[in-house]
Design goal:
mainly alpha, Four Helix Bundle (Hemerythrin (Met), subunit A), 7 helices, about 65% helix, globular, disordered C terminus
């Protein structure tokens, strides 16, 4: 049962990663970074369930999740995860540190950090043996369950 729930979390990460790529293509860099953050968070929480056989901590701090898992990420990914962490809030609220985040985030930053998210999700997927597209019945971008 744990593995099935973990797969649901990982599938959610894949959906969010797809949303990040789509937002990046549309020039919505703040939303791309929020979705990238969510993808990494969900992948790491899936890893918690499988590797630690425990509920993941209720946190959005990606560094805390990586360190709690004892994951050994390449330095550039670890630094990227640390940089991505504050975008959980920064990307959404104009009073959270960035004025008008939908206009303040450079394309290059969004591209780089979405790339970090892709690599982290891929790394976690390999570690857990989860590959490919989300399983049938996975939630869509709207959050509604698809009938399958």
């Amino acid at each position: 049962m744990v593995r099935s729930e973990a797969r649901d979390w990982f599938d959610g990460a894949l959906v969010d990663l797809d949303e990040a790529r789509d937002a990046l293509r549309r020039g919505r860099y703040n939303w791309a970074l929020f979705a990238a953050h969510q993808a990494v968070e969900k992948a790491l929480k899936a890893a918690y369930m499988v590797l630690k056989r425990a509920r993941p901590p209720k946190t959005h701090d990606l560094v805390r999740l990586v360190e709690g898992l004892g994951l050994r990420l390449p330095r550039e990914l670890y630094v990227g995860v640390a940089e991505l962490t504050p975008y959980y809030t920064l990307a959404r609220y104009p009073n959270a540190g960035l004025e008008r985040p939908w206009e303040s985030i450079p394309r290059e930053t969004a591209e780089r950090l979405v790339g970090v998210a892709e690599r982290v999700v891929e790394h976690v997927g390999r570690l857990l043996g989860f590959t490919g597209a989300p399983r049938e019945g996975q939630e869509g971008a709207s959050g509604d369950r698809r009938e399958g």
